[in-house]
């Protein structure tokens, strides 16, 4: 069974034993988290709000640097900022 689940404001289509990267979650490494209200996808169709997805937190980390460049032409204004987005890698342990 597959499901469409919302994790940290982003939607993911998942099935058992998938490994996905999501925006930073509060759980510790090796913690088990549960997300309810997922849309279950079966061979018969969709089951809105009927699936629960359990995940295991594998690691926390930071992505590559994203550079943000601002410029106003003909004014001599240039500004360069950057940041590294935090992420959590999780493994889907169950879709019920």
Write the layout of secondary structure elements.
Elements: E1 2-7, E2 10-15, E3 19-23, E4 32-42, E5 45-72, E6 77-95
Antiparallel strand pairs: 1-2, 1-4, 3-6, 4-5, 5-6
Please give a quick description of this structure.
With 96 residues, the chain is mainly β. It has no helices and 6 strands.
Describe the structure.
- With 96 residues, the protein is mainly β.
- The chain has one domain (2-95).
- The chain is built from no helices and 6 strands.
- The protein has a 6-stranded antiparallel beta sheet, with no helix packed on it.
- Strand 1 and strand 2 (10-15) form a beta hairpin.
- The N and C termini lie close together (8 Å).
**Sheet with the most strands: spatial strand order:** 2-1-4-5-6-3
Radius of gyration: 18 Å
Note the overall shape. elongated
DSSP helical segment count: 0
Largest sheet: 6 strands, antiparallel
Binned, the helix content reads under 10%
What is the N-to-C order of secondary-structure elements (H for helix, E for strand)? EEEEEE
Number of strands: 6
If you average the pLDDT, what whole number results? 94
* Span between termini: 8 Å
List keywords for this structure.
96 residues, mainly beta
């Amino acid at each position: 069974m597959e499901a469409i689940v919302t994790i940290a404001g982003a939607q993911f289509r998942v099935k058992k034993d998938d490994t996905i990267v999501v925006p930073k979650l509060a759980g510790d490494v090796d913690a088990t988290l549960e997300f309810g209200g997922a849309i279950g996808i079966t061979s018969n169709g969709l089951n809105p709000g009927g699936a629960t997805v359990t995940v295991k937190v594998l690691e926390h980390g930071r992505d590559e640097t994203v550079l943000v460049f601002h410029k106003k032409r003909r004014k001599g204004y240039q500004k360069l900022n950057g940041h590294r987005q935090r992420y959590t890698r999780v493994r889907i342990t169950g879709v019920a």
